[in-house]
Design goal:
Alpha-Beta Plaits, 18% strand, alpha/beta, 9-stranded parallel β-sheet, 11 helices, 346 residues, TIM Barrel
């Protein structure tokens, strides 16, 4: 069950609802979005019915949700949400292009990649300072130094930063530098990390686990929402199947399936799905056609020397083709460039 608070509900109104729910042995999880506050209730549903919550000051409505993911479901929030990151929107009316290096390697490499991304039309910069890798001997990222480089590149380019967090102990330092926290495929089921980023006060990019169902993915988003954060963007990045032709199999059908079920924005990562630069542009075109709210891709000034995922990074003509696709195709499906809707962050 969820309680939807009115836009003008006060903190005192919210506190009274929480107190009343806890008074009958229930738990109340408050999640504040841009325009509304949702209170998720856990406990005996019948006891909640006797509280007459709809009559309380500041309460707009009360819904009983059958979906296991209460706060991210469209059952109580039929309109699809827009999530703002550093003044850039992810939502149903726009198409958001995110690009940058898979890993931050040096100030010069990161700045050059950011300038390439911005010139191609990207409105946010992705870059990894912490890199969870399959091999413990592979490049693990520059850590805090990488975050500092990202901050300086943001100052130089004006692009808000999306960067991955891999450990709940690093939340504080990552929040100091990032505009959006990314939870990667290997950590989608790291529930302690999900709860920590939910409490961090920053928008979250949640990638689908490589072995996860759509319901498991949405339940991971629910962990974040339950901790007070409804500013979650979902990212389909391919799932592991029996097919070896690509690194992962991009589940393009997941985009409309999730959009029909959840109010959260959904974007696509064709770079990590394919693992091959020649497939990034066609998969991006497919993502736009199916109604994705954006794409996130890898770019690198010298892919052959990249310390991480060089074979999938775009450069030169490949990046020009992608720039053309993200400029020309979204209007055909009723979208506008998110860059035209950018607003100054509050």
């Amino acid at each position: 069950m969820v309680v939807v608070m009115a836009p003008d509900a006060t903190d005192e109104d919210i506190a009274r609802v929480v107190e009343k729910v806890e008074g009958v042995g229930g738990e109340a999880f408050v999640s504040k979005g841009v325009v509304r506050t949702i209170i998720g209730l856990v406990g005996d549903i019948d006891s909640f019915h006797h509280l007459n919550l709809r009559s309380m000051s500041g309460v707009a409505d009360v819904h009983r949700i059958s979906d296991p993911y209460k706060l991210v479901s469209r059952q109580h929030h039929p309109e699809r949400s827009t999530v703002w990151v550093g003044g850039v929107p992810f939502g149903p009316e726009t198409f958001t292009f995110v690009a940058g290096p898979c890993a931050v390697e040096s100030p010069a490499q990161t700045l050059e990649a950011a300038e390439m991304a911005k010139a191609a039309g990207a409105t946010l910069l992705r870059g990894g300072a912490f890199k969870p890798r399959t091999s413990p001997y592979a490049f693990q990222g520059l850590g805090v130094r990488g975050l500092e480089i990202l901050s300086s590149v943001r100052e130089a380019t004006g692009l808000p930063i999306v960067t991955e967090i891999t450990d709940a102990r690093d939340v504080k330092v990552v929040v100091e530098h990032a505009d959006m926290l990314q939870v990667g495929t290997r950590n989608m089921a790291n529930f302690g990390l999900l709860q920590a980023v939910g409490e961090a006060g920053k928008p979250v990019l949640l990638k689908r686990g490589m072995n996860s169902t759509i319901e498991e993915w949405l339940m991971a988003a629910e962990y974040i929402a339950q901790r007070g954060n409804l500013d979650v963007v979902l990212c389909e990045r391919g799932i592991r199947t029996f097919e070896p032709a690509t690194r992962n199999t991009l589940d393009i059908s997941a985009v409309p399936v999730v959009q029909a079920t959840s109010h959260l924005p959904v974007i696509v990562d064709p770079s990590h799905a394919a693992g091959r630069k020649d497939l990034v542009v066609p998969l991006s075109r497919a993502a736009i056609a199916v109604g994705a709210d954006g794409v996130i891709v890898d770019v690198h000034p010298d892919p052959e020397s990249a310390l991480c995922d060089g074979p999938q990074a775009l450069l030169g003509n490949d990046l020009r083709l992608l720039a053309q696709a993200v400029r020309q195709l979204p209007p055909a499906v009723g979208r506008v460039d998110a860059g035209t809707r950018v607003r100054t962050p509050v």
